[in-house]
Structures are given as C-alpha cells and as structure tokens.
Give the backbone structure.
Amino acid sequence: MRTEPRTAIPPAAGAAVRPAAPPRIPADQLWRPYADCGRQCGGDGGPRVGRLRQALRAVAGGLVLLLGVLLPWRPDLMARALLRALGIRLRVTGPGVTPGALLVGNHVSWLDIVVMTALSRRAGRLRMVAKTEVGTWPVIGRIARRQQTIFVDRARPRALPGTVAQVAAALRAGQAVQVFPEGTTTCGPHPVPWRAAFLQAAVDTGAPVQTFTLRYAHPAAGFVGDDTLVVSLRRVLAARGMSAAVLLGTPRPADAPRRELAARLSHADLPAA
C-alpha cells in the first residue's frame, strides 16, 4: 500500500512553524519498491472458459499439488504438470538456465515460481528466493520449503544481509538461484528499478548473472495491488488461451559493483519474443 504524505495544516498567526513529521512507512515497505499496478493493469477480463472446465482444472491442479507433497517428484516435472493442469502453455526462448548462475528478472505473478521451476532441469537444481509469506501458503508453501526455497522477510530489513549470504552459499555450491530484484509483482517487464542487494551474492562469489523476462498472453496472470491468492487463482482457472513465455538472456559476469549491475541488467537486451 502506498503511503501518501500528510496534508499540511496552516499554522495560526504568530505561532511557531514546526516541520511536518515524515509519513510513517509500514514495516513491510521499508525496502520494497512501490509499483503503480492494480486493477487498471487488466487483471480482470480476457477470454474465459466455462464453469465445467474451471472445475476440471481445479481438480487436476489439486491432484498435482497433492502428489507433489506425497511423492518425490522431480520439481520441474511437477511444475510442468501443474501448468498443464491449469491450461497454461509454456514457451522458452534463449540458451536455457545456466548451472550455478544467479537468475534475475521481472515478477508478474505467483505463477512465475511455477514457470521458473519448470525450467530447472538443465540447471541440476534451481533454488528460489521468495517472501516469507509464500512458506505459509497451503500446499505450495510445503513444496517451497521442501525445495529449500530461501525466504526473505520484507518486514526485517536488518535480516537482509543474512539472506544474501544464504544465496552466496548456494551459488558457491554450484546451485542456480533465482531472484526477483524488483522486490514486488508489477504490470510487466521492468517498470520499477531493480534492487541491488542480491546481486552482491554474485559479486562476492564470481557467479555469472543471467537475466530473464516473463510475459503472459492473458491479463488473468497479473497478481498485483491488493490481489489475494484465492482471487488470482480463480482468474487463472477461468482464463482461456493463457500462455507463459520466458526469454532467457546470455549469462554475464558480475564485473561491476552491485548497484551498477542492477542499473545495467534491468535494461539488458533480451532475445526477441
């Protein structure tokens, strides 16, 4: 939620003028950027399937998630099965995920986690960086914890260096780690500046940095503003003809300070759609 400045009240004649108190910033917004994304971005709308198809998708998706909890599925196979159950086609352009790389790109929806996991086979193991709230989600949170997702607590900025250190340790172990440096879901590719904190892990370890861009061919994929997971899931279940495109860039060396890297990579040239 965006915090607006307080309205100034004119002082009485002859009274001492005190400087206005700064607006109070909610704890979970201390380092998270704000994006002007909401219902106006088109989350509602687009072609829809009938109620029977929606119900079948819900049942199929629930079965995939249940099997993902009960059986030792390969994460990429489970993610692909879930996308298929939800009626989402996946298309990938680029060189594939590089083992041991830090993957950085835009964040549109909770679906991004599923899409990126579906690409993880070539990387051997792909670990995600996600907000702590994801770990509390039904079923999905359990799967995320089992996959050793690295959780970042946005309400505790002082804990951020420790989270960056976890990412660095994973990169040193040869694991690919994927992070959304925008820090929040947005309307599309790169509408807000990237936060540089997690790029420090690549600088410290010498790991390559690989950019990606996510695009969805249906407005129902958007998960922004005051959306809830339940409302978003209902839109996804009802969407007709949704597809997800992942455009992977060529790995690049982390050869500059993290802030310079963030400014450069957030506008990196990517493969054509």
